[in-house]
Amino acid sequence: SSGINAEWPLRPGNNPAYMITNEDATRFPNLKVLGPGDKTQVLKFDRILCDVPCTGDGTLRKNYAIWGKWSQAQALGIHKLQRRILLRGMDMLKPGGRLVYSTCSLNPIENEATVLSALRDRPEFRLLPTEGCLEGLKRVEGMTNWRVMHSSGTWYNKFEEVEDRHRKAIAPTMFSGDAAVHNLQYCMRVYPHLQNTGGFFICILEKQQVEERTQVKASEIETIADLPDKKEKSTDCDSALIPLL
Questions:
Q1: Rounded CA gap, 120 and 99, in Å?
Q2: pLDDT in tens, 203-229
Q3: What residues form DSSP beta bridges with 211?
Q4: What is the CA radius of gyration of the chain?
Q5: What residues are annotated to the active site?
Q6: Residues 6 or more apart whose Cβ sits within 8 Å of residue 196
Q7: Burial (0-12, 13-18, 19+ Cβ within 10 Å), 142
Q8: pTM (predicted TM-score)
Q9: How far is CA 154 from CA 15, 110, 147, 149, 150, in A?
């Protein structure tokens, strides 16, 4: 389901701080609250967990059904849905807010390509380093270059190479292009063989303040690469993994 559901935190008991919703996550409605002077304003969030629908190819070890039903066409098709959900989540954040995007897939079309295309559309966002998060968890950096394969088996390096008959399935948002500029290496990939787990993709997106955006543009992105010390990175990651939706 592409709906946003916060039911699981309520299982220990009722809590007035939670609200259960059942909406299409690509078109999640604005929530209105009373602001200063009793004026109605749109509620923006500090933290959002965006665990999107995916092909689940990272769960092949436990979900045998995927061996028979997985296809490249399925992965290409779900990219558009993932992208719409991610963009809606990003639009619901307040400046300084953070969003965790995650899947149980290892296909870059469902992961890095989705995140990269969203970063291009929302320049006020940046990826945060994850190397200090969840210490002890074995992981590798996100991919910065990949090719796109059509379900027919044809590989493409860039969208301009895609034949007209394949352009209904393959979109420009699926290619790496300027991936290096957006620090996709900050993403986290968890591979099953590293520590006897499933396969996962995780990244943290932060909506910058207006003044921070000016500084980043003026310094040509270098400030994003300046990593905080180890203690600060662990604190950042702990606070980013709080689901509000």
A1: 16
A2: 999 999 865 554 434 333 333 333 333
A3: none
A4: 19
A5: 104
A6: none
A7: buried
A8: 0.81
A9: 52, 18, 10, 6, 5
